[in-house]
Every structure is written in C-alpha cells, then in structure tokens.
Amino acid sequence: MDDPFRANLALLCSYHPSIADVCRKLDFNRQQFNKYLGGQSRPSRSNLRRICDFFGVTEAEMLLETVQFEQLVAVRRRPLTDETMTEPLRRVEKLYRASQNLDKYVGSYFRYFYSFGNAGKIIRSFATIAKHDGRYYWKNVEILRDLETGRNVGVNKYEGAVFFLSDRIYVVEHESLQQSSITQVTLYPSYRTRVERLLGVQTGGPTRRGRRPGASKVLLEYLGRDVDPRKALAKCGLLDPADPSLGADIAGQIANTITPPSFVLEVEEP
C-alpha cells in the first residue's frame, strides 16, 4: 500500500519548479529530502512543521488518502475568479433590491450623539441622504471646534450606504479621509407624514478613541432638502448638553443610560 505522506509530499512539490527549488527554500539537505520522497524515512517533528508551514497544510492533512488530499489542495490553489471577487458586491446589490423606498428621508440632517473622545459633550454634525440611480447614499461631516476659542481642531468625513429593511433604517458609513473606521447606525423610521427626528443606536470605532469600540444613542434632526451646507456646517461642533441651541429634549433622548431591567443600550420607540 502506498504511503500517503510520500505521495502527498510529491504532489505538493509538483507545484514548484523543481525539488531543488523546494529544498533551497526550506533550507533542507537534498539527499535527506529525497529519502522523504522515496518513503525511506519520515521527517522529525520540527522538520515536519517546517514542511507543513511552507506548503500551507497541517500535519493531519499530510496523512490523508492521496485522492482526498489532491481535492483539498486543488480547492486551495484554485485562482480567484471574477465571480468570486464580485460576490460581496452582489450581496450588497441584494440588500439594495430588498430595501424599501427611502424617498421620504432624502435630505439633510443634524446628527447628534455624545462624543466618545470629549466626555460629557455632544457632537452636532451635518449629514445628508441622497438618491442616485435608485440607490440611497449617505454623507456626514464632523467639525470639532474648541468650545472656548471656536477654533477647528479636527474634521472627519464619512460616506456610506443607506438601507430600509424590516422597518428599520440602516446606515453603514466609513471614514473617507483616512479610511480608518466603519460605523453602523440603526434608526427607527418616522411614522409621521413629515420627517422630524430619527432615533437609533450607532456602533463603531471612533477615530480619536484608540482601538476601543463603542456604542451610543444617536438622533437625526431633519433640516430639509434645500439646505445651505455652509450655514449648516457653521453650526456644527462640540456642544454642552445645556447649550440653548439644542432642540428640546435632544440631550435627554441621546443619553447613554441603561436602566433596569435592561442590560443593553436600547432606544425607546418614538
């Protein structure tokens, strides 16, 4: 009966230019390696690990029956096709097709949430939902200003996609300047004829928070479809919860409190 290890090792070597090339890359003695291929000896445990690491297989897989091993190696070495590469994009297309109509929500918003990097302060940013070729897209700009001097200390820009699935609005955004973070926002839709506020929860890894992920309540305040971005951005920045420019009860609606019997951060249905 043929030795699976010997046959499987020979198969792996066949994917390389020559046995000499494999020995050179592994820094193995050619004469000793030929004994492995000829079935006259087996490698030591440490040498076996080196061989497995080099070829990208496990020790247990090296002992599989040759037919099974050939199938395993063939699958792993199969080149990525255009169809394979575009699979994630096709899944996004499925989400777009399943998404409900979001025309009602197209327009500009102020986005409010408690800052992750400035304890006790609220961030007001400028967000927009737009429609293009039947799909809905998202942009958000955060301008961080010093509360005392009014000087800009940072700008974050986000872009993403918007979906309306199972009576919830989802926004998936990425930080577009540094490509350093992804945030996912889940919002209640508005049941009123006119959109005023959208409440929800957002999760992600804020850019100025190190590696620690976080979650917070979030509120979108609808501004309309014909909005001057410059004037809106001039009102954005870090705010104190008692700031008179905040709409009624905004600070309370985005307070990140977990009250019994809850054990998770939740938003009351409006």
- The SS-based structural class is alpha+beta
Mean pLDDT across the residues is 87
The count of strands amounts to 9
Uncertain regions: pLDDT < 50 for 5+ in a row?
A: none
Beta percentage is 25-35%
Major sheet: size, sense and barrel closure? 8 strands, antiparallel, barrel
- Principal-axis shape equals elongated
Order of helices and strands: HHHHHHHEEEEEEEEHEH
Helix percentage range: 25-40%
Terminal residue distance? 73 Å
Q: Can you give a write-up of this model?
A:
This protein has an 8-stranded antiparallel beta barrel. The N and C termini lie far apart (73 Å). The chain is built from 9 helices and 9 strands. The protein is elongated, with a radius of gyration of 29 Å. The chain is of the alpha+beta class and 270 residues long.
Layout of helices and strands:
Elements: H1 4-13, H2 19-26, H3 30-38, H4 45-55, H5 66-76, H6 82-85, H7 87-98, E1 107-114, E2 122-132, E3 135-145, E4 152-165, E5 168-175, E6 182-187, E7 197-204, E8 214-224, H8 229-234, E9 237-239, H9 250-253
Antiparallel strand pairs: 1-2, 1-8, 2-3, 2-9, 3-4, 4-5, 5-6, 6-7, 7-8
Helix pairs in contact: 1-5
In short:
The protein is α+β, with helices and mostly antiparallel strands.
Structural key phrases:
270 residues, alpha+beta, 8-stranded antiparallel barrel, elongated
